[in-house]
Amino acid sequence: MNLENLAKPGGFDPFENAGDDDEQSADIHIRVQQRNGRKCITTVQGIDAALDLKKVLKVIKKEYCCNGNIIDDETMGQVLQFQGDQRVNIGKFLIENQLALKEKIKTHGF
């Protein structure tokens, strides 16, 4: 997969302030919610807004063969929503592509 263009124009480095103690980055929460019967959805909250979420969504959908979209919420900001239980896949994707540190990812669900 080609992930070179995930950052918005301007060459944003998501880990440029990772070592600063005074500025703590927010955690990324990965949750699974039961819909009906055997169906469930996975939501991802807290991904850095400087990333182009449309491109991240497109790569994840293609790599893990699932559908997804971006939800705009007043309190939580932009939330990625995926079809099925994708908790492990999303966490692994974020770590492997250096979009988030392992310590910053919180996985919730049954």
Describe the structure.
- One of its GO terms (molecular function) is translation initiation factor activity.
- Residues 1-25 are annotated as: Disordered.
- Residues 28-98 form the SUI1 domain.
- This protein is an alpha+beta fold.
- 20% of the residues lie in helices and 26% in strands.
- The chain has two helices and five strands.
- It has helices spanning 53-64, 87-96, and strands spanning 28-34, 40-45, 68-73, 77-83, 105-107.
- It has a five-stranded mixed β-sheet, covered by helices on one side.
- A hairpin with a 5-residue loop joins strand 1 (28-34) and strand 2 (40-45).
- It starts with 27 loop residues before the first strand and ends with a strand.
- The relative contact order is 0.24.
Blueprint (SSEs and pairs):
Blueprint: E1 28-34, E2 40-45, H1 53-64, E3 68-73, E4 77-83, H2 87-96, E5 105-107
